[in-house]
Automatic annotation (TrEMBL):
<feature type="transmembrane region" description="Helical">
    <location>
        <begin position="151"/>
        <end position="176"/>
    </location>
</feature>
<feature type="transmembrane region" description="Helical">
    <location>
        <begin position="53"/>
        <end position="75"/>
    </location>
</feature>
<feature type="transmembrane region" description="Helical">
    <location>
        <begin position="208"/>
        <end position="228"/>
    </location>
</feature>
<feature type="transmembrane region" description="Helical">
    <location>
        <begin position="240"/>
        <end position="262"/>
    </location>
</feature>
<dbReference type="Pfam" id="PF02405">
    <property type="entry name" value="MlaE"/>
</dbReference>
<keyword id="KW-1133">Transmembrane helix</keyword>
<protein>
    <submittedName>
        <fullName>ABC transporter permease</fullName>
    </submittedName>
</protein>
<keyword id="KW-0812">Transmembrane</keyword>
<keyword id="KW-0472">Membrane</keyword>
<dbReference type="InterPro" id="IPR030802">
    <property type="entry name" value="Permease_MalE"/>
</dbReference>
Amino acid sequence: MVLSLYEVPRSAARKAGSALDQTGLLFVTLLEGLRRTWDVRRWWGEYIEQCWFIARVTSLPVLLIALPLGATISLQVGEISRQIGAQSATGAAVVTALVREVAPLAAALLISGAAGSAMTADMGARKIRDELAAMEVMAVNPVHRLVTPRLWAASTVGVLLCSLIVLSGVAGGYYFNVVQQGVSPGAYFDGAASLLQLSDLLVTLFKAWIFGFIAAAVACHMGMNCAFGPVGVGRAVNRSAVVASILVFAANYVISMLYYALVPPRI
């Protein structure tokens, strides 16, 4: 059936309105989860359990991604710098890229893909079994009970994963730049320290902290508002990974733009 000229704008308006509604509900879930943060004794046990779960499912993938990622950056940058006679600058490029951009993004994507998918499936299963409704009947807010510990667990593990990604990436870059390309270890690490500032590390940890909140909030929101049935849960898992990735990249652009405007990079 061909849509009339009047139905096309209406359909686009309905989709835009639905997207705005979902965005508003997502922020409501995030703010409501953070509102009862002060009541630590009610969610401390769940927080520890979620931290262990997220760290367990993301640590090995982080190593498998960070090592070849640092090696690839080192290999590509090393070939270019060798052509212009500046191989000692490879270490600076590798470590600067890892610390400023790669580490928080990789941590957030792994959390949203591995741990976030499990969170969405868990929340979706609780909804289709009416566990969330039962908690509300017993005067237990499911957001405070389930979402709050997952928000703080994802943000905490995201910060911790940044250090692991940086160390693994530096090790991979060291192998290709020093062992394979013949650059001295002193030149590799001296170049790495020449462009970085303490503020770079602090902003990176701040990014990972914020990205953890985003990934967990999207996962929990999609799971708690999924359609009934296994198909609805599966679609919610798929949507949560995609939406979390988009929001993480958008937030990364905004934070990086503000940081570079306020703190000019060292030359």
